[in-house]
Predict the structure.
Amino acid sequence: MIARDRATYRLGSPGRSGYDAAASPPNPTSTVSTSPPNTPRAGLFDRQLLLFTGKGGVGKSTVVAALGVAAAERGLRPLLVELGHRASMGSIFPGSSIDHRPHPVACGGRLAAMNLELDEALFDYIVGQVKIRRIARAIAGNASLRGLFRAAPAVREIITLAKLQALADDLLEDGRRRWQPILVDLDATGHALMLLELPQLLRSLVESGPLVRVTESLSGLIADRERTILSLVSLAREVPVQETIELYSDLHERHAIEVGSLFVNQVPPPALPSTLLPWLSVAEDRLREKGRGKGRLAADLRLTRRLDDEHRSARAQIERLRAELPGIPRVELPMIHGGIHGEADLLRLGELALAVDEGQGEGVERASSAMASAGGDR
Amino acid sequence: MSAIDQLLRSRELLVCVGPGGVGKTTVAAALGVRAAQLGRRTLVLTIDPARRLVTTLGLDELGDAYRRVPLGDLGGEAPLYAAMLDPGASFDALVGRVATDEEHRSRILSNRVYRLMSRAFGNAHAYVAMERLYDATASDDFDLVILDTPPTRNALDILDAPGRLLAFLDERVIGWLLRQPPEGLRARLLARGGAAARGLLSLLAGDTLVDDLAAFLELFVSLRPGFQERALAVQGRLRAPETAFALVTSPLADNLADAAYLRDGLAGRGVVLRALIVNRAYVPLGDHPWSAGADARPLGDALALLEPSGEGERAGFSALLDHIRALRQRIADGNQRAHAAALAFADGAPRGCLKVQAPNLDHEPQDRRALAGLAALIADPRAELRR
């Protein structure tokens, strides 16, 4: 990995294939900003509990699923966890049934997923706390109490964290961790912050009892930089970028959690290789001079100009991220027209994200060309 | 008149739900402008709008209070108002309204459990939205209220909140937790089982938290009838025939997955979805917004149209035109895949649900005129989503 502070290098070359690539989609390009010099960064999968957050609609679930597939292909034992009220994983892995226990969903059974659902997790939690199963069942089964738990503040968050901890601590017979890594698709940013703040908030409220132990151990898990890392997902658009910048400064000031990479998803590729851009301007001027502004060719030129503008404004937003968040490595993922479908697409996206994240140039070249050729098949 | 316009004319409450990041708040604001143009006195209640939307509406700030949106020559007689839901402030206002006296109010407002509940947690949004809805729909000042909800889960919270609040104030649970023995035989019987329940809760949550919770409930219990009345009224309102739910989504897979969750969640709660709006459905290929597919006009000899003046220009233009052809083909293919995904999703919408799509605009609307333009697109008969 070439260490260049705040430098960004581009992998793959957008314009390289120039004219002959006209029939294929844009070269997915990905860039990474490197860590500050002399601070080797641990790989994403060296941690066990990988939390992901970002504004809704940024394709967070797809990125998480893609990394899960890549982890499985590397021989790890990944588990995808989505929070109960979302149902994205079910449509990302169609045909799989996702419920409150881990089940295999892809990669020949090597990738498992589960939905962390309040009522079931609550039961597990109560069983863990009240050792007597019959009483636990009575509590969990009581309709009035369930109503109280659903409405009461913080219950959902405590249960979520406690369940994540139980999953993280679960061991195989041979003593290895059962799930390595656990990839958690957190809610939109506000909810993620709330989860992270919870142990602190609770400490102000609770002075004794089992919740104190739970709280202590939850804040320990979140603050454990060797074990837990939070990654951010954004788009190269004004509102998500703004929100990401605010989220990062909030995290930086108030939380002990380690922040990993920022995944910038769906980055629109250049409309034209840079060598052709001057020709676009010449062609526009020519049609204007000749009074041919209304035909189909003129419309095509305007379409190209619009797409180029879109690419440029995305680059400007990425530049803003670079300037405002110099300390966080960025991983740019290309916009794939028509979206990501199926395990093979996910694996390519995941490998691309990882290769860039780990700064393995060679891997990126491979992933980039694989992605480009896959796009060409469509 | 298009079906969307009919909806805006005939309903009293329009609830916009949808995943985050699909332009839902912008669509809600655009529909508000449209409704005012159609002559309806309209209120748009939004949740945490991006700063830009506030300026797009021509306002310098937006808070808890209703603000008149200056429509200028866009509007007619009917005014448009906007307000933002501020969870902390409004929850306090709610307590203020229901609490009987000043001391009672301030004791609630300073209770730690209350503060945690009203400020730190997402659920509070739903209660606050519920309260604002109660006020706004009961008011004679508005013909139509458009409610923009928070993304995904919290959108359903709007429907669940009234019932959940009632469950939270469940007599029996409160009976268990109250420290003073309640009056009356029935209440005392309930309280007897409660000692055990309270012990268990303490075991789980710790004594302090249970004490605080009990204190909170003691303060809150007297508010129950007031809350109950409002919660029931809002529950009824959300399912009334004068109310319509609109689902706003994009055709991206992640968004459709969230949208499907909402669609099914609404159905499971007995709410009929009246409109599906697929926003950013396609990239227009031509100059007009409906050009989702290939341009039928013959391209002709594009190179000749550019009249290259020499070999250098000829080579440059040829390369450019080759690239542009590939580019537009790629966009057309992407549009087609997005269209297929949107159609497949629309098949799961209930019978009688309007299905419309809006193009991916180059820029988010920057002013009220652009909002009106977006609404005009959504309300255009050509916006209908069909095979």
Observations:
- Residues 311-347 of chain B form the longest helix (37 residues).
- Chain B touches chain A through 83 residues (CB under 8 Å).
- The domain at 3-158+230-285+341-383 of chain B is CATH 3.40.50.300 (Rossmann fold).
